[in-house]
p-loop containing nucleoside triphosphate hydrolase protein (Schizopora paradoxa), 372 residues
Amino acid sequence: MFNLKGFAFTSLFALQQSASAVRDVVYILCFGLNPLGETLIELRDIYARFDIENLMKDGDEPYPRVDGKNELKSKGMEIEFRNVFFKYPGTSKMVLEDISFKIKPGQMVVIVGANGSGKSSTFKLFNRIYDPTEGEVLVDGLPLSSYKLKDVRRAMAILRQDHTPYPLSLRMNIALGSPDNENPSEEELIKALQAGGADRFIEKLPKKLDTVLDPVQLSWLNLNGESNDVLKKMVADKEKVTDVSGGESQRLAAARTFMRLGGSGIRLLAADEPTSALDPEGEYELFSRLKEQRGGKTVIFITHRFGHLTKYADMILVLKDGRLVESGNHTELLAKGGEYRRLHDVQARAFISLDDSASSEMTDSKSTSKLD
């Protein structure tokens, strides 16, 4: 039996602490080595990525080209597809087949077609997310692959359908649209927000531009059963997720694009279904402001909706099943009576049906009120 006589309390406390320390070490050895091993493997994989060779080779030619023979006579970018075939890596089906067209500098072009026609795949080729499987994409007369990739992308303002905000404040999310402008003014930010139509809903947020929509979890709270409401509230406020609708998210993306358009050197504005989550009024306003920002730039819109854009386009490219089946302006394509006319009439009938339905409801409502 252990005799505590003459055993100091401090020694007993030290013994208890030592026993706890040994217990913790044993626990870590038994249960902590597996997560440690997994963490080391993940770290190894991160560093291994630096050794992965980029399959998309960078070019040597600076963009835009400025020399005695190729002076910048236009503020827009010329884009040409020559017999382009494309299939996604790891697949066997061609999503684009023998596509050829030429977009002149400063033109406004709209690419239309039913779902699955190849619109977005075309979009991914001219900003070199992918390279063609066969054929060539040319920019200002040279193969796109011959240019320094960062130079070409710096000359583009791209507005995509999908938009995932960064885990930063909305102020920083918008400012990232113009990376060369390290310290944008409040006036520049507000102007971009208004152009994108995002100013109204941001104004309703408690923290406004300082709101972080989806913050990264950086804390772990363990009070061991004790209550600390102030600390809990502090952590909850820091990591609170702010929900926004699809339309609001697209307005944020548009505001970032307008921020980019406010910078220098942009020669191409391209938008892929940027208004899919907006109502007709919001769509009209956004397209109107984007058209106002042309300023000699080449503009390419991809859309499945007609009306706000196609009537004003210099050229419309009509895709069907991965092929370019028609090209021309709105009047010419309607007169042809082909795929464009078919798509146009389908949408027109839908609007006529809605109008007839609304008129019928109003008539029924009036009849009912007379009977009453």
User: Anything to note?
Assistant: The CA atoms of residues 175 and 185 lie 9 Å apart. The longest strand covers residues 79-86. Confidence is low (pLDDT under 50) at residues 365-372. The radius of gyration is 30 Å.
